[in-house]
Amino acid sequence: MESAKEEVDTKIKVMFLPFASTSHIIPMVDIARLFAMHGVHVTIIATPVAASLFQSSVGRDSSLGRSIRTHVVKFPAAEVGLPVGVETFNADTAPDMLPKIAKGLNLLEKEIEKLFEELEADCIVTDMFYPWTVDAAARLGIPRLIFLAGSCFAHSAQHSVKTYAPHKDIKSDSTDDKFSLPGLPHRLEMTPLQLPDWLREPNGYTHLMEMIRDSERRSLGSVFDSFYELEGEYLDHYKKAMGTKSWSLGPVSMWANQDAADKAGRGQAKLEQKGKEEEEEDSGCLKWLHSKPENSVLYVSFGSMSKFPSSQLVEIAQALEDSGHDFMWVVKKKDGEDGSFLEEFEKRVKASNKGYLIWGWAPQLLILENAAIGGIVTHCGWNTVMESVNAGLAMATWPMFAEQFFNEKLLVDVLKIGVAVGVKEWRKWQEFGEEVVKKGKIAKAIALLMGNGEESVEMRRRARELSDAAKRAIKFGGSSHTNLLQLIQELKSLKLDRINGK
Known about the structure:
Belongs to the UDP-glycosyltransferase family. It contains 23 helices and 15 strands.
């Protein structure tokens, strides 16, 4: 009887609260699914639109006997003046709706905290953008883990800039004047204009980031979608710099999505049944790839949060056409701009069978693992970086906002599996600035990425080595596999201590 009671007592219930943005939801839900794969009772709390992005995967996991479910909370659209269905941040979210969505999420705080209690959570894992949850966990007497989106390198670099302010020594706004990032394992240089604005000068976002860091220090620890062989020096450095525990559990996309159906639908809303045209589009792009030789196709994608004005799309299109390489391009144009140039471009490259354009969402996991793909042009969003590393692909880097310029440094200067397109200035999300990267720069990066010279071949070799390391990390005895088991065991021990009144 004692052993049966102990089994009941040590079975832990963990609640996951992802942030309302596709790029944050996807990896965090994968982490939740990993917990469920390893015997944890998992509940994911989400609003209806957010839940639609992952519910099919949760349903498949549940049908396999895993203890995982979604608890949907209604988004207060009417209270904040939004139409029903607008409740997440993505490339299509209108700027005037952003503060309303944020307000709606704030209104849900008390309801979500009550759920933590009613569902008898033994631990909560919440996105970094919910710093209030550390106080909720403290009131309930349970541990809180913070999910830090992005690379450990980026968080280490941000900590360096925040601590030492090396950019303050640069007095000009020149894109050529560089400063070093102090205290990091490698000597790395950046320009002030490549830094996020909240690091250059304090603003409202700076205050939010300070709240996040404070909540992190008061949490049990942080979890990353990364693995030790990829950025182990920075995982060690970050733990020491912050004085906190951290667990790298990645690559979560490879580990959680081993089913073809999961790969095909990852990150795509399932609000209603796909139409015949959409299904044909999904299979059409893969059929086109299967017709191409190995490593011959360049994949171009700037993530779920980015759009470009026509002036930039023209330069990309001309560079792709001039490159001579077959390409697949996921296109999102800025709202209200004339798309006739791209429509003509699509007809031309379709006729020559040199290019394939995907408008909107793409089955990226299936595309990247296709043998025809030889390289990728990326915005350096961490999800895409991890997925490209899994696939063993080198990258042409085109950072725009958030922590993407830091990720570029990791890829180009530390790991040496990337070539910079040459973007000079960080910009706010959904703002386009005046910088237009010319086709010559884009073409030069593509030539190095896809070329046969010594530097190109070596870069691709390193990318393949990291892919092999990623596969080892999630196998039994691998770095991420061991981290997950140790974390779950620690949570069980904390539960037992709580039961025993320690």
